[in-house]
Design a protein that fits this description.
With about 40 residues, this protein is mostly helical. Helix content is about 95%, strand content about 0%. It has one helix at about 1-40.
Length: about 40
């Protein structure tokens, strides 16, 4: 049980490091619907 808690804490630190990268993906995702609309036309 204690080993699992330590592993979870490591994952939380890794998740916090990914937040800036996730914000960049949101900007990229916003550009995708524009491209999709062009494909529908």
């Amino acid at each position: 049980m204690n080993e699992n808690l330590m592993f979870t804490n490591e994952n939380l630190a890794f998740t916090n490091g990914n937040r800036p990268f996730t914000n960049e993906n949101r900007v990229f995702t916003n550009e995708i619907p524009v491209l999709t609309n062009e494909l529908v036309l």
